[in-house]
TrEMBL record:
GO molecular function terms attached to this record: transmembrane transporter activity
Organism: Candidatus Aramenus sulfurataquae
Domain Major facilitator superfamily (MFS) profile residue range list: 3-150
Keyword Magnesium: no
One Pfam family named in its UniProt record: MFS_1
Keywords carried by this UniProt record: Membrane, Transmembrane, Transmembrane helix
InterPro entries, A to Z: MFS, MFS_dom, MFS_trans_sf
Name of protein: MFS transporter
UniProt superkingdom: Archaea
Sequence intervals crossing the membrane: 7-29, 35-56, 68-87, 93-114, 126-149
Length: 150
């Protein structure tokens, strides 16, 4: 089980980075002088990325390797979150947010392969823990986002 810890940290980080924006929508909108709907679009981008890139991510994971998919997801998450934190205008913030959103399907696509490798007899348990950690990251992101500016 220790071998899956980096994967679960990645999934948690994606959820965290996605939902830390939720309570900060008014702050981000006023900081970059854009409408609230533009900022909400960034939060929706993660869902859109999964819908649009999910099949492609599965294909890439199968064609190249699970490792390549997870490395790409890790790099996109790191660059996206760091770039978002250092953005000086909304165009940069948008670009880095979209980059980070592309990490989500790349992390989720190989879930079955990883589960088979580590928990052959309890694949559902692995999937449940993974999805649970994604949502736990979302909830911690929302809590931390609101704590930052309260």
């Amino acid at each position: 089980m220790r071998g899956v810890a980096p994967y679960w940290i990645l999934v948690f980080s994606i959820g965290f980075g996605w939902f830390i924006l939720a309570p900060l929508v008014p702050v981000v909108a006023s900081t970059f002088k854009v409408s609230v709907s533009m900022v909400v679009l960034l939060i929706s981008a993660y869902g859109y990325a999964m819908a649009i890139l999910g099949l492609l991510a599965g294909l890439l994971s199968a064609k190249f390797s699970v490792r390549a998919s997870l490395l790409a997801s890790s790099v996109l998450t790191s660059v996206g979150l760091l770039g978002r934190a250092l953005s000086t205008n909304f165009a940069e913030f948008l670009a880095f947010s979209l980059l980070g959103a592309m990490a989500y399907p790349l992390a989720v696509a190989p879930l079955g392969s990883i589960a088979e490798a580590y928990l052959k007899k309890r694949v559902q348990t692995f999937s449940g823990i993974t999805v649970g950690l994604l949502f736990l990251g979302m909830s911690f992101g929302s809590l931390m986002g609101s704590a930052i500016f309260s």
